[in-house]
Amino acid sequence: MYKFHFNSEIQRWSWLPTPTRTDYVTVSVTFPKDGLAQFKLDVPSGTTSITLDAKYDGKDSVQATKTITETKSKTNNFIQLLLLTNQLQAGSLATFKMSSTVPNQVIDYQIWSRGSMVVSGSVTVNSQSSFSVQMLPIMAPSARIVAYYVTSGSNPELVADSLNFNVEGAFDKNQVQVSYSKSKAAPGESVDVEVTAASGSLVGLLAVDQSVLLLAGGNDITQDDVLSELRSYDTTTQSTSYPQFRFFWYPYSVSGTDTSSILSNSGLVALTNTLVYKHVDPIIRPPIWNMAMARGGFGGVRPGIAVPEMAIASVADSIGPVAPAPNSASSSLLRKWLYERFFQKVGCGQT
Predict the structure, then answer these.
(1) TM spans, by residue (predicted)?
(2) Which among 63, 114, 205, 327 is most buried, taking Cβ atoms within 10 Å?
(3) Between 2.60.40.1930, 3.40.1550.20, 2.60.120.10, 3.40.50.280, what CATH number should domain 73-174+222-283 receive?
(4) Whether pTM exceeds 0.90
């Protein structure tokens, strides 16, 4: 069972905390044999974040939570990458789906793995388009595709999206096989060892008495150790502590709420004279601040601040008559009077 929380902001006075309205939607899903369920969900307009609570009530109760936040763009243009192919294997084709808010847009893409770019290309997207890329052994065990384009106009903006995915077959390019001339041998007998690998390979052999393994283990070089080493070459730090489940091939988006954070979390830097948007929440001051500045409080008039006359009048009426301009000796008393009188009036009780 999936329970969704849709959080949307409700616009109020800009100087008060912005409240949110939460809508709840519950979806029950029956899983197929592969353990992967897909379903569609209509997201209400104005939604700023979605929280997914997944819960399975079986013999062993399992619960997980994931939150998705709204992506920001200065020009309100976006692209989205999706992977349509399951169980990626080196040598096979991976099909990606790309969506764009701008039709007939040429979008460039790059695939990175082990800290290097291994594939690049471009595709023309008409709202939604699909394209395929052949998976290479160098893309295993994990890779990342980054798509981007620059908007047209006098103020161009870089629009980007990124997607991580796993590829099996890190050892397909060089299959190493070992065989022995005898399955059993007595002490002093010779045993021929035959190693098969790609030409020019450096192969290491280690022979250990089985009785030694009874004393201590865990010192052998395993495939998991090699895969962890290959993941460490990535342009970003990835956790390698996750369980190696059979279905862990499922792709996952690079976190980020704007182009700047998406590229940064992908381990990339954009050298461009276009806008690489980085969203910053504006700092909004309460009306009492602007009123005091506009009317000569706090040390004089502050030029450049526009305050609605109705807002000044309503606040001024609630405070009472404004005292004449004080001299320098009483300026501190006026600041204290304005704050205490105003906050007592509105019931805040603090400054």
Answers:
(1) none
(2) 114
(3) 2.60.40.1930
(4) no
